[in-house]
Structures are given as C-alpha cells and as structure tokens.
Amino acid sequence: MVASTLDGVAIRGLVACVPEGRETQADLAARFGEEAAQKIAKATGIESRHVVAPGQCTSDLADLAARRLLDRLGWQADSVDLLVLVTQTHDHILPGTASLLHRRLGLRKGAAVLDLTHGCSGFVYGLWTAAGMLKAAGRRALLLVGDTTSRLVDPADRAVAPLFGDAAAAVALEQEEGAPAMAFDLGSDGAGAPYLAVSGGGMRSPEEPARLAMDGTQVFAFTLREVPGSVRAALDRAGWAMEEIDHLVLHQANAQMIRHLAQKLGATPGQTVIGLGSYGNTSSASIPLALATELADALSTGRRRLLLSGFGVGWSWGSVALAAGPLAACGVVVLPGRKYPAESAYPASGAGDPAETAGR
C-alpha cells in the first residue's frame, strides 16, 4: 500500500463528456433476446450506455470536456502548466495522446504533459499524480481521464458487451494555500492481471484481435478483498469516520457490487452514489462522471466531504478522502456523433459545436 497526503491543491471544476451514440436495452434484446437483456439490466443496474461513433477516439471526448471546462472557469489555455491524461485507449501507439491534446487545446509551449495507462482506478491515480506534480511546481493543471472501451468489446460477448460505455472527464486543479488535504491510499497486485485484460493487438500478440476478456468471479472476489480496506485506510488518514462523509463514490461498475461494498463499509443508501444506469462502466471516467451527473448541484453550492474509490484492471485500486466545492463548473457535455475526417487526424480546438450540457 502507498499512503499519501497532499494539501495546498484545490479542485476548481469538472466537466464530463459522453458521445451522442447510445446502446439501449432494446438493442441488447435484439442481439441476445428479451429475457437475457432483462436479466443483465437487473443484475447490473445498467439500462443504456453511450458509445462512440466510428472514427471517434478518447481524445475527442477529453478535448471537448477540457475546452468546456476552461471556458466555464474563464481560464486561458496558456495559463495551464500541466496536463495529465489517464486512459487505456490511446488514439495511437505513439505519440502519446496527452501530446495530441496539448496541441488541440492550444496549451503553451513548455507546459508539461503526461500519459498514464490505468483503468478503473485511474481517476484516483491521476488525481494523486497531478496534485503531487502541481504541488511541486506550477499553478494550474488539467487532469483528463477517459476511455472508449466499446472499441475493445466483442458485440457478441454477453459477459462484457452490455457493461461498458464510453466517456471522458476533465478536472481543473489549482494551487491554493490552505486548501484541504487529500488523503490517498493506493495499491496493486499484478497477480490479477490476466483476469481483466486485452491480450491481443499489442506487441506480444499483434496477430490476435484486441478484445476485452473478463473473469467476473475473480473481479468480484478481488473487489471485496481489497477495496474495503483501502477505503478505511483513506478515511483513517483523513481522520474521518464513514458517518462524517457526505458522499461515497465508488467506481461505477455494477449497482449490486456498489450496494454490497457500501453495506460492508457501513455507508447509508443516502451517502452512496449510484449513477451508472444510463452510462454503464466507463472505466477511469466513472467516478467524475458520477460526480457530474449525480452531485452537480451539491458540489456547485457548497463544500462536500467525499470518499472516492476506483478499482479494477491490474489488479489496481486507489481511494481518496477529500473535501471539494463549491465548484465553478460541474456538468456533462455531449459529443455529436460524427466521425472526424481522416485527413484531420488532429482537429484543432473548437472543431464542432457540441450539444448543450447538463449541470453548470
């Protein structure tokens, strides 16, 4: 376990982005049958998911989220000192997608960028990394997280196809003397790597298709084994009891799993945030997406004590206890469902007029 406390860095706002395209229960019923579709919805709590159009990539979602966030905060792009991107679904093998976003967003020459390859724990790892780097040097940072996991799913695989949606989120961080501390607990166990993996399509097995495979039994067992201890460690480091937090936001993978973990942790239904019904499992974006969809009003109007915990591929897990709000921006923007032309592989910031957003 890695325990860490960072202070002096404040969250100023967050904007999540989902693609316009959606896959619904009717689509699943047509593919797997009505009875199977209903069983999946009952078991997972997922009714529909947003999925990217052909040609859309993680950077398109992250770019729109970041541009909308900068606009709402009134930040100029050249005032950002650091950009950290967390994704498993990079646009290209190289260059890193963070460099593409540096260009698209118009960040100043010399701003630092960093790509992190992490999945469902990625938001907490990204927050730890970005806040730590910002505390060491710089004034403002953008943390971008997101995945287009639907591109890795076999549509005929009923074990994973109904679960994963696409999304990204942008979070603005700024140095602030006296900002409340963030108490982190992080860990990993590489023994779990085979149980949630895309083993094909990489350098090891380039001839194999890049398809996501998951052992659900192993995932569930890992979650119950590691996550409660991590959450409690973050709370202890912050000096909080579970009843003192306002909201528990766990990785939004499965509604039943969230309820089971919350009960195990002693959290009430009123504290526990469940917001995956219309989005599915959006990997590293699931926590900020839940904040933007379920807690936009609360975070826009006052300070809230939050316990955030992500866990999954790796195995990897991370929890953080923090206080956030009031935020100057908190909401969701929709990326229109059109393909970027091949000759514009790196469209400039401002390409396309996004649909209206929810929240602030």
TrEMBL record:
Residue ranges annotated for the Beta-ketoacyl-[acyl-carrier-protein] synthase III C-terminal domain, each copy included: 235-322
Classification via SUPFAM superfamilies: Thiolase-like
Keywords carried by this UniProt record: Acyltransferase, Transferase
Keyword Transferase in annotation: yes
InterPro entries in the cross-refs: ACP_syn_III_C, ACP_syn_III_N, Thiolase-like
Any one GO biological process: fatty acid biosynthetic process
Keyword Transmembrane helix: no
A Pfam family reported for this protein in Swiss-Prot or TrEMBL: ACP_syn_III_C
Source species of the chain: Azospirillum thermophilum
GO molecular function: 3-oxoacyl-[acyl-carrier-protein] synthase activity
Source domain of life: Bacteria
Protein name as annotated: Ketoacyl-ACP synthase III
Record domain Beta-ketoacyl-[acyl-carrier-protein] synthase III N-terminal: where: 114-190
